[in-house]
Write a structure and sequence with these properties.
116 residues; 3-stranded antiparallel beta sheet
């Protein structure tokens, strides 16, 4: 079974949850470890970028739906065996739970218009 232990790394232009574009909102978050690596290598806090759909799910605290959306988008872009889907789903669930725990409540809009 393949291991999925990568710390999420934003490319700076896509959603950190599902990789969609454009980014609509940023969420401040304290640093935390995922498989012994800091999520934000350069400091004690950072920001998670979210597309409009993921931002709605985060704001509504619909964590299970966010996990399924992230998983679905990951599966579209990567070749994963059916046997690894359950494990990957659990890893998405875990990292979303850590994000939820370490998120700094104040969020700020990215300032992009809906037409960008």
């Amino acid at each position: 079974m393949q291991g999925f232990h990568q710390v999420p790394r934003s490319d700076g232009g896509s959603c950190d949850f599902c990789t969609a574009q454009p980014i609509r909102k940023f969420y401040s978050c304290r640093n935390f470890k995922w498989h012994a690596q800091n999520v934000f290598p350069g400091g004690s806090a950072g920001a998670w970028a979210a597309c409009a759909e993921c931002a709605e799910l985060v704001d509504a605290e619909r964590w299970a739906v966010l996990t399924e959306r992230s998983l679905r988008e990951f599966l579209i872009n990567h070749s994963i065996t059916q046997g690894d889907v359950t494990r990957l789903r659990e890893q998405f669930r875990q990292i979303h739970e850590l994000f939820r725990q370490y998120r700094i409540p104040e969020t700020q809009a990215c300032g992009l218009s809906q037409t960008d």
